[in-house]
Amino acid sequence: MYDNILIRYGEIGLKGKNQKDFLHRLVKNIKMRIKGIGNDETKVVLERGRVFVVINGQDPEIFYKALGTIFGILSFSPVRKVGLDLDEINKAALEEFKSLGEMPENFKVNARRSFKLFPLDSIELQREVGHYILVNTPGLKVDVHNPKAEVWVEVREEAAYVYSKKINGIGGLPIGTGGKAMLLLSGGIDSPVAGWMTMRRGLEIEAVYFHSHPYTSEKAKEKVLDLARVLAEYSGKIKVHIVPFTQIQEAISAKCFESLWITIMRRFMMRISERIAEQQGMLALATGESLGQVASQTVESMHAITGVINTPVIRPLVCMDKREIIDVSEKIGTYEISIRPFIDCCTVFLPKAPKTKPKREACEKAEKYLDIEALVQKAIDDTEVVIVKKG
Ligand SMILES: Nc1ncnc2c1ncn2[C@@H]1O[C@H](COP(=O)(O)OP(=O)(O)OP(=O)(O)O)[C@@H](O)[C@H]1O
What we know:
This protein is α/β, with parallel strands linked by helices. The protein has helices at 19-34, 64-67, 86-98, 122-135, 190-200, 218-235, 246-255, 261-279, 299-306, 322-332, 335-338, 345-348, 360-367, 372-381, and strands spanning 4-8, 43-47, 50-54, 75-82, 106-113, 141-142, 150-155, 160-163, 167-168, 180-184, 204-211, 237-244, 284-286, 313-314, 384-389.
């Protein structure tokens, strides 16, 4: 029977003076994410160096999925909490060992003592607890180098904790500790990964999607909302701004050089995203751009595209290989949705020979034939907002 789930938070431990803020945010996020999972007595408690979810004997596994999707958690373990008494520790360790199921041929005990007034040091504690398990389990051996099973004992000021399982979390920093960014979310493989990586560094995100109805179907929009739903598994919810983009694309294709269509389109995406981000109090944009991947992802193109905004653009994938990006998308659960066939707004107005090294000045010249302000404002006025929540 487990009393608590012990949570290790890794990188937050390296923070200096503002560590407290990071921890309080982590606790807040855990509380929010496990709400409704356990019974009314479930609590989240912050102790020195650790966070505990007090579960009082509930099945710990019901919390695993939520804890495995919270940024800031390095790993977690279901633990038995006992008093600072060797007898109690021994009994809990034996019980924990027996709960492993089929008896392993050998094992090892690891002990850690952060409460220095406990009479045994960690080596002595390992020996004592190991001995107790051995004499109560006929046929069992110790192997400290290559153990088939391990039991951990952690002696802290308030209690001792005994466990045998360590489940990996997703690391990173708690969402909300790094401010907010507006993610440009398309239906492809890259931008959902960029959103996940941005959240992993502690940023809260909203998403903006440029929809080219009737050239792109309702299915394309649904696909983007499904991707946002997967991202919401990590954040609780995501606000998606769906911007009608058709009028802008038609104006560009009617009035600008074909080779600049993509760059000018992207400049509009940046202008509109920045404007919506400002309205939402956000100080950054995030995209799934990766250098060299397609014609519009060269440094010249990035230079021309970001020339119309003053907001920093976070590009978490900028130097990643496609294979690495796909690996992350498989891991986080967006890949299967991203590969669903659909028509992207950029493929509808795809020039035969897009410029790979567009110049800012050429774009500015071409855009003189467009009423930029009216087009941007109309698209923002007609934007639809959808809030997607975790399933
Ligand atoms: N329709 C759209 N709505 C919102 N953002 C978009 C849209 N199309 C492109 N973007 C943004 O521009 C970035 C670059 O898009 P591009 O189509 O050049 O690259 P990509 O490698 O196909 O990206 P992705 O796989 O994310 O679609 C995307 O990662 C995304 O952030």
